[in-house]
Amino acid sequence: MAEERREEYYTWSPKTTLGKKVVAGEITSMEQIYEKNMAILEPQIVDKLVPNLQENVLKIRTVQRTTDSGRKGSFAVTVAVGNKDGYIGVGTGKGSEVRPTIERAIRNAKKNLIHVRRGCGSWECRCDNPHTVPFRVSGRSSSVKVELRPAPRGTGIIAGDAAKKVLELAGVKDVWSRTVGKTSTTLNFALATMEALKKTRRTKLRKDVGIL
Questions:
Q1: Are 7 and 39 in contact (CB under 8 A)?
Q2: Above 50 in pLDDT, residue 208?
C-alpha cells in the first residue's frame, strides 16, 4: 500500500488550478504563488519549483488511545523541510507506521512552505550579506513565544534545538533568540519560529542593503 501511494505521488497528475498552471509553465516560481496569495494544496508543486529541499525530522512521538478492543498506538511526526536558501516549511503527520507517517508530514510541510527574507540587520556587523534576519521579529504558537534578533557574522544560531533546525533549513546562519513558554513542545516551538520568520516579509526594504 505504501509503495502504491509513493508511485501515485511521483506520477503526478495535477488536480488543482495552481498545479495545472505549474505543469503548463504558466507559473515558474514560488514568488508568483506568494504574490497571488494562492494556497498550495499539492506538494508536487513545491517539488517542481524548489527541487533541492532537505528534510529534518524534528520529533517522533507515540500516541495511544483506548478503544473497545483495547489500546491502540500510533505515531505523530513533526518534520521541517527547507533548501537552506530562504525556503522553509513545517508539517505534521499521524499514522500507524513510522515511514508512511514521516512521508505524510513531509508532504504537509511542503504545502506550508514559505520564503524568508534575510539580511544583515545587526548594527555590530553591517556586512550587507544575507546571513541573519533583517530586523527583530517574533512569533507565537500556543504557549510558546519566540523572538529572533539580528546577530553579527560568526555568532551562529543561538536558539533551542527545534528552532535551530528550522533556522538552519531556512538559510539563517547567525541569530540571537529569546523564548518564552513550554519549548519542550517541539511542534509549538517550531511553529512559533515559523511565525517569526513569516514576519520578515511583511516590511518593505531597500534592495541595496544585502537583503534576500
A1: no
A2: no
